[in-house]
């Protein structure tokens, strides 16, 4: 039997490295564990942590293709972050100029959530615990 123990990381490719770096660190509050420029690929790799746990790899590549549609394109639908207070999280995003969708309620759990875009329009979610 396969023995998975955790999600190790989520890899994202961005179109504007500095803009996405600011968004994930200054808006979402992830911390930088390591930052690397890979000259042979003309690519940056930024390792980011949430509460001290490595969670996101942010990559830049020259001219990556756009996502075909949002959020129902084949592949990763969205990335969700758990928050203790959805209203406070939305207020924080709005203060930083990030617009959120109307609050929805999970029909199975009764928990509230909302979606918002990252700088490349990747759908992100805050899910209230």
From TrEMBL:
Keyword set includes Signal: no
Top-rank taxon, per record: Bacteria
Domain VOC, residue spans: 6-129
Keywords: Metal-binding
Transmembrane parts of this sequence: none
Residues of the signal peptide: none
InterPro entries associated with the record: Fosfomycin_Res_Enzymes, Glyas_Bleomycin-R_OHBP_Dase, Glyas_Fos-R_dOase_dom, VOC_core, YwkD-like_dom
GO molecular-function term, one example from the UniProt record: metal ion binding
Pfam family, one: Glyoxalase
NCBIfam families assigned to the protein according to its UniProt record, in alphabetical order: PRK11478.1
Protein name: VOC family protein
Organism: Spirosoma pollinicola
């Amino acid at each position: 039997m396969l023995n998975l123990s955790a999600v190790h990381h989520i890899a994202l490719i961005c179109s504007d490295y500095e803009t996405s770096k600011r968004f994930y660190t200054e808006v979402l509050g992830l911390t930088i564990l390591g930052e690397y420029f890979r000259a042979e690929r003309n690519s940056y790799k930024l390792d980011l942590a949430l509460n001290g746990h490595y969670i996101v790899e942010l990559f830049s590549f020259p001219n990556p293709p756009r996502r075909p549609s949002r959020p129902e394109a084949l592949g990763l639908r969205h990335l969700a972050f758990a928050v203790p207070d959805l209203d406070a999280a939305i207020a924080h995003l709005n203060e930083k100029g990030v617009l959120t969708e109307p609050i929805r309620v999970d029909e199975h759990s009764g928990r509230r959530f909302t979606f918002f875009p990252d700088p490349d329009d990747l759908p992100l979610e805050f899910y209230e615990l």
